[in-house]
Design goal:
The structure is a homotetramer of 471-residue chains. The first copy, chain A, is of the alpha+beta class. The first copy, chain A, folds into two domains: 241 residues, Aminohydrolase, N-terminal nucleophile (Ntn) domain (Glutamine Phosphoribosylpyrophosphate, subunit 1, domain 1, 4-Layer Sandwich); 172 residues, Rossmann fold (3-Layer(aba) Sandwich), CATH 3.40.50.2020. Helices cover 31% and strands 26% of the residues of chain A. Chain A has a seven-stranded antiparallel beta sheet with strand order 4-3-5-2-11-10-12. In chain A, strands 6-7-8-9-13-14 form a six-stranded antiparallel beta sheet, covered by helices on one side. Chain A has a four-stranded parallel beta sheet with strand order 18-21-22-24, with helices on both faces. Chains in contact: A-B, A-D, B-C, C-D. Chains A and D meet through strand 6 and helix 6 of A and strand 6 and helix 6 of D.
């Protein structure tokens, strides 16, 4: 899977997935399988760090897919009963191994490891202060500040130092810190990003999504709660003093697009949430049609929901090619819609002469969707009705999702009618904000900043930059 | 994608896909995209050979996936307006680059290339004779005999030499031979394996399936007919004398499993054929149930057909992980069903407490299916009813499909009741032979040897071996 | 070592070195070490093929240096008591693995291997004839014709077929052919290129130079004689009927430059031959000077000989950097003589203010020499006297040495005075043809075609090409 | 060149070479060439870091040889007019890229780079203190402490911070620190390791040896003095306040073995120093003999000096194979002296029946020498007299040279007579300490700790460890 080819260019990208294992003789193996199941959360680099019997760290990282980076030999070399694993996308563009996580440093003769999902909104402020005080930064990553905060804390013991450090971090963090044989797992007070707790025999597992528990046959215990700090050693779990409380603000985009449909996120089946979005969408934007189908695979559930409520028959009309590679080819003669055709092909017999409803989970730039529509028209579709199972994305995310800039967000700059025209479809309908919230009303409260612009956690660095510019 | 992980261990494997381009300034690019679309037909090695302006061959081959083997630079180096491309699995176990196709040799100061899908049933006999006469073989491949037959033919010109060579070949071959600037495209008289003809502007395209035409925006002209030999130069197509006629015998497994659902094979939409198999299966093996779902993705169409006819609601209850790598991990602690869990995960909310119908397109060894069933039971399925949208596979294929040996074919050695018990399901139903043929009655006649044991083309080498053993 | 950096651009290049081992449980290891010692004869590719207990071939080849291509694992995989190894340069510019030797084909269900040092002067003629008769060529190499001649021979057994094939080859060949468990080692009737015979315990070793015997501790038995064909099996040596006799014509350039100084070639110590060339050079071109030094390392012996006879003190005034890599850097700012400075640096204290004699073994293009002279002048040399321990190279070699074209041979197009001026030296002296022959009068007769233009073996292909051009 | 094969196992290993360029548009190219010339000082890893126009760092490092690690593309990517380069061996056994230099960190929004030759004797003490204060260490290297000392310094500006840091370092350091566009070059007060200053046009070059200046055609200005701290920006050089003075103590092993013979080290031609060692050796240990020769190449100068004074004719009797690879083969059948034979081969004609004097520059373990002697005996040498152009090595080095442990130092545990017997030679003579010093009496004072055990700089960490053990 390649950066260029496999990622949905029209989708925002999650930045990370993480897994940690305590108290298992097969810690690295379990971490590997967990990362394998979390691959959709980050396809650029992956790493696993363990602590062996003598307390020495074992680390293996690489660029690319989990299954390409690790093999039997590397896993065997990752000895120890504690493992921390991480998959990531680059955010700031620096996509080299230096930024790959888990981060590993020597801390008072012990290995200290960190794996982070989310984004600190005061990372630069922390960095500036720490640098002034003599800390040397090795990476561009916002996560590194947490390590220095721990190392420089004047507090007594590790528990307190970790608390001290996390209390200074603002923004989104679901994080695992391991020092020696002890794992600290925590979520920021608003709980933007997911983190779940599981058990397999004696072992404790922490992971971004429940699918990482399923793959190893571990039982799901519960979510790590917003603001919670857990201390895990040899399979035992202890609840430390929580971080200062705040209004929870769980990311709703996880349900819309990011999480795997077989995962439970925010205590809710992802598949059934999407099914409800699709049903609500059918109510809000009904249409006469011969068939309804998804842009596979992330929209499958929503399309099926739309079909159920509307009565329009569900079809597999777009076939997706999953064999993609690590390099990106730029054909000179293959035409404008090449990137879409490489990935999708319509089933001509299914769409020819038909009034089609295409359901997509979200619309970010609109480029892929436009190519898809062209393709469907060429295959003979009589009408194309586009339905989006979430509202128009209009604002960037500062809590750990890599969104295009506002300029590139088609929903930020155009009316629905303009977008309809741009896509070249007969009708276009977005799920309403109210409809989306109503569909998952039993859960939440949710962060919907990318649709509404309501940012729950202070955007410290952004404000500082604006102040500087205005001075 | 890796040999170990991506292939369905429980499925037979096709051996090859091929594409040829004549008369395009972007021949290598088009061949690349064609192979990319045909990746499902062979994931072990891929190659493209072109002939440049000076008549010199340019070749690039590698082990692995198309998108990993080629990049902009290698494609740019493949100059010329004629290209032949090939993807393959190894059959005889020798899986190295030496056997990768297209084969390329110097023949009378011109490059001669060959790409072959199928299997000659008299390959060893030909090889023995040619070796006695002084031919030196470079590969293990049955395909190489065709090259030597051309080179040693006493006939006058290339057209006749190709005819001479193909007339001596017995068994299954959809083949492209290029000599200098000329392409010969042919199918054996029974037409076991597919081959289609397309056009893009001035260029002529030959490919195993229509999806290879779609990806480059080429128009589908028609199938190459059984026994037909076409001569293609600079985009012009000429029909040469056909091979001696025989009763057509198109591979039905292409419709059941191999071909992409968006392809037309045997003049028939693959998706709609599978839909019909599913509908017929619902008629033959109805059951009370709460939901029906596919083993994704190859069984999607059949499962939807089953749902349509039975009225049982269609669901996405099994999620497939497509992020697989080139290496195969063998976890020591991950348990027996690890291989299945790495690939599939059930949506617990969808199956819990439900009477489930699982539809698979075919059943070969039964190992994956058994693991799936265990997984569904653990996720809380109340009942599991297994439905197979084709009859029990009972015989090996000698015409280009890599089947397990008879000992490994669960259908060859067990009754349906025994298999039901082995899988641990509440009921099991296979599509009947009559039902399968009826569903595609407008097409054919078909080869159904792997179900019936009726082999259309003589098994020359097999008979020789048996004679030797009996002597 | 890289093509660009390690080869002396100003030197002709030998094309090959070979080694064969029969009757040793460590055949591949011995072949590896032999190739390692013969690395100077070919640095572009290397390969070893063995025949294992079951008669199956094991092969490993690669581009680059012997020590980079093989490791413990690859050697361990090369099972069997018979091994054939080869190092080579490309001649015709096609420098890919396809042409790497030993060649390996299946021949009547046995592996047939060939390793060749030399160049057939009727290769194209043979190739044309064989192609017309239906042979398929896999490589550009002239050596492949020998394989087809064996395969197509109508003679009775392998001994006769090998004789039949070699009798049709014209030009230079020191060759090893292995069929199954039998090795045939032969030299053409004129014996252009070397081949020696050694024994280590039960094992028989065939190699290009004696240094390949020394490295494994094998005893030198004798040279393979011109026209001789030896059959070696399980350590036993049998002399077959020799090829038709001809006047011997041993390559004198082996003594001048190619062979390692610690080897015995043509029954003569290479070091002492070069010492004699140097002594004779001092007699023919004496000069007043403060020091004499070599262009290291190939000219060391000649420079010491010059010092002995002239009484001018020997010095190490040029230091050679041996750490060279596989890639070639083209600095944009490093100046014209960069390539020379990367390789050599003068010892300023030794040359400053001194009258220097520089001894080189041969002068082909003159580019390196010119750069060296500039460097010595800049280091303060008062006078630079250049002495070449062989006559001016004026003609291309057709017997296995890769010479520049006549246009590039400085000696073919310029008088000694012109060359002196070009190099910018105070005086220039070449060893005379008579002096060179006199120095090695106890050995020979020798081929001196690159100096004299007297070609002993007919240049069949060259004549044919000229005839065609004149028609 | 490989760790295993190319290094003289019987020699101590230098740990590093460095080069820095200021004020050149081709800074990376010049640094590359400089490292290329310094390759003998470290063959395990190499790196270059530049600072581009925008002040951003560009870095490329790799394991292996300079010429293998860099190519045109990587050099082109290393934009900027300031470059720092480094080659190294691992000391503490951790030989991975993480420890490769130059080290690069972000320091107050500027890149800070460090390249270090030498060894701090209080590295662990500094590290312990810095860790307690919250510094996070990324490497095992003693050099990293210097970076943290700079970052944590309370002093005002960069000049003072660098001074502050270096003043706390004890032991041996020739070091280059670059912050933004400024280079600081310094040597410890005793000046254990070399560092020279050169100029090429507007550019200033700092390098370990003068051969790095020669390769780029730069003029040698002078040595950086012991205790001197230079500040270099845009080609301008400024002398800062020197470090506290101490008695100079230049490493004499640089002249004996490490430095290239074409370099000037300690203001002295390396070749002529070695020549003098050889002459003095001939005076101290004369012998009747027919020939004298070197263990090439490092002993060439000494052997020639021995010949001059003794009148015994100089010969090239041992030929060294320079074609070595990156991997190390362990033949199972090749015998005990395999490692020696792979590297050296005697010229039989030169040694057969002769009384031979072998000159080596130093003797550390004695294993290679013993193999050489066996080899010479087998080649027929009548007598073998071994002469070593330095005294017996008896003590480890703590100032930047990687010596075997005392247990492995043959000179530390055996009398000369025992060693003579062990080597199997007819006589053995070492240069005396007095003779060695007398030969270079115009230079110095020198550190001779590895022969005498007189350690000039305090061994802080060693003392601490001993204290801890004794407690």
């Amino acid at each position: 899977m390649t950066t260029g080819m496999t990622m949905d260019l029209d989708k925002p990208r999650d930045e990370c997935g993480l897994v940690a294992v305590s108290g298992s003789g097969a810690a690295a193996e379990l971490a590997f399988l967990g990362l394998y199941a979390l691959q959709h959360r980050g396809q650029e680099s992956a790493g696993i760090v363990t602590v062996d019997e003598k307390g020495a760290p074992r680390s293996h990282k690489g660029m690319g897919l989990v299954a390409d980076i690790f093999d039997d030999a590397t896993l065997k070399g990752l000895e120890g009963s504690l493992a921390v694993g991480h998959v990531r996308y680059s955010t700031a563009g620096r996509s080299d191994l230096r930024n790959a996580q888990p981060m590993l440093v020597e801390y008072q003769d012990q290995p200290l490891m960190l794996a982070h999902n989310g984004n600190l909104t005061n990372a630069q402020e922390l960095r500036d202060r720490l640098s002034r005080e003599g800390s040397i930064f090795q990476t561009d990553s916002d996560s590194e500040a947490i390590i220095h905060l721990i190392a420089r804390s004047r507090r007594q013991d590790h528990d307190q130092k970790v608390d001290d450090a996390l209390s200074q971090a603002v923004g989104a963090f679901s994080v695992v810190v391991a020092i020696g044989d002890t794992i600290y797992a925590a979520r920021d007070s608003r709980g933007f990003r997911p983190l779940v707790l599981g058990r397999l025999g004696e072992a404790v597992i922490v992971a971004s999504e429940t699918c990482a528990l399923d793959i190893i046959g571990a039982a799901y215990l519960r979510d790590v709660r917003p603001g919670e700090v857990l201390k895990i050693r040899d399979g035992h779990i202890e609840e430390l003093r929580p971080l200062p409380p705040a209004e929870p603000s769980a990311c709703l985009f996880e349900l819309v697009y990011f999480a795997r449909p077989d995962s439970r996120v925010w205590g809710c089946s992802v598949d059934s949430a999407r099914r409800k979005f699709g049903r609500q969408l059918a109510i809000e934007h009904p249409t006469e049609a011969d068939c309804v189908f998804a842009v596979p695979d992330s929209s499958n559930s929503a399309a099926l929901g739309f079909s159920e409520t509307s009565g329009v028959p569900f079809e597999f009309a777009l076939i997706r090619n999953h064999y993609v590679g690590r390099t990106f080819i730029h054909p000179t003669q293959a035409g404008r819609d090449f990137k879409v055709r490489v990935k999708y092909n319509p089933v001509r017999e299914t769409v020819e002469g038909k009034r089609c409803v295409v359901v997509d989970d979200s619309l970010v730039r609109g480029t892929t969707s436009r190519g898809l529509v062209t393709m469907l028209r060429e295959a003979g579709a009589a009408e194309v009705h586009f339905r989006v199972a979430s509202p128009p994305v209009r604002f960037p995310c500062y809590y750990g999702i890599d969104m295009p800039t506002r300029e590139e967000l088609i929903g930020a700059n155009h009316t629905v009618e303009e977008i309809r025209e741009h896509l070249g479809v007969d009708s276009l309908g977005y799920l309403s904000m109210e409809g989306m919230h109503a569909a998952v009303a039993n859960h939440g409260p949710f962060c919907d900043a990318c649709w509404s612009g309501d940012y729950a956690a202070p955007l410290v660095d952004l404000m500082r930059r604006k102040e500087m510019q205005s001075t």
